[in-house]
Amino acid sequence: MKALVLRQDSFEIEEVEKPVAAAGQALVKVQCAALNHRDQWIRVGQYAKIQLPAILGSDGCGIVEAVGDEADGHWVGRQVIINPNIHWGDNPRFQQKDYQILGMPTKGTLAEYVLVDTDRLHLRPEYLSTEQAAAIPLGGLTAYNATFNKGDVQADMNVLISGVGGGVAQFAFLFAMAAGAKVYVTSSKSSVIEQCMQLGAEGGADYKDKEALKSLSKSVGGFDVVIDSACGDGMNDLIAMLKPGGKFVFYGATQGLPSGLNMRAIFWNHLQLLGSTMGSDEDFKKMLHFCEHHQINPIVDKVFAFDDAVAAFDRMKEGAQFGKIVVRVSEQ
């Protein structure tokens, strides 16, 4: 089978051995896979415990071709999406120490076939295309945990999604709107802010413009929840936008650690800083149910042919996307 293989000195499509399903496993013929920033960070060596060679890809939609146990035969021929959690554990609040994400060190979805445990399989929501369904798993789960478990977003809250162009951020944006919140966004691109407003955002600001952030916060009376993945020295600007008792939820730190935090503002205003990662297997089920109930349509930025998969990574590297980048692995 063909797979996009990352090696120490190459990153290209190769012929590799097709896996065989063992007991408790399913062999999925991948139709579409979607990229996450995690994939690009692994590609450039900016991720912990990288093991090469690797087949990346945590998100995927496909058809179950074979299973290792006769009892799982009902899955064969079904169109599925894959829960990328591996060993989350029993505690719904945080992952256990041996937790992994599909797509390094395990072989991921950027291949014609992927092998997963059958308890990772979920039926593809019928209202979605294969491209849209492939876009959901990692980003949708991460956003669900940040938005609802940590942020406790509810109707009529003022919610700010920072850096809305990314995959997780767009899901947080869509989820918060579906929950009835008043959602605002930040982006360095006016075109992205305009697109979000066409999709229902109340307003937005350039996160590089401190005065614009202050003006936005003042105009709405502050925010109940800010959801962010950058941190860095812009963190204080976002914290200043929170109402007393507000929550700053962050699921990444792409801009690194802040050089300082306004601790007085945090304790005086009873603010909460809440870290978040993906989410439990139960959260994955709840997230899919939420998507189906509200008919959430993931924002797909661009779809690439499998032969152009490296170009898909280059688009992510450039930061040119709004929404999810999808690779169509097979037509079936």
Helix fraction bin: 25-40%
CATH homologous superfamily grouping of the largest domain = Medium-chain alcohol dehydrogenases, catalytic domain
Give the amount of beta strand, in percent.
Answer: 25-35%
Multimerization status? single chain
Count the beta strands. 18
Shape: globular
Average pLDDT over all residues: 96
CA radius of gyration is 20 Å
Helices, by number, come to: 10
Q: What structural category do the secondary elements indicate? A: alpha/beta
Describe the structure.
- With 332 residues, the protein is an alpha/beta fold.
- It has two domains: 2-136 and 298-328, Medium-chain alcohol dehydrogenases, catalytic domain (Quinone Oxidoreductase, Chain A, domain 1, Alpha-Beta Complex), CATH 3.90.180; 141-275, NAD(P)-binding Rossmann-like Domain (Rossmann fold, 3-Layer(aba) Sandwich).
- 28% of the residues lie in helices and 27% in strands.
- It contains ten helices and 18 strands.
- It has helices at residues 37-43, 130-134, 137-150, 167-178, 190-198, 210-220, 235-239, 263-268, 281-294, 309-318, and strands at residues 2-7, 10-15, 25-34, 54-55, 59-67, 79-82, 85-86, 100-101, 113-117, 121-123, 158-161, 182-186, 203-205, 223-228, 242-250, 272-275, 300-305, 324-328.
- Strands 3, 5, 6, 9, 10, 17 and 18 form a seven-stranded mixed β-sheet that branches.
- Helix 7 links the parallel strand 14 and strand 15 (242-250).
- The radius of gyration is 20 Å and the shape is globular.
- The model has no long low-confidence stretch (mean pLDDT 96).
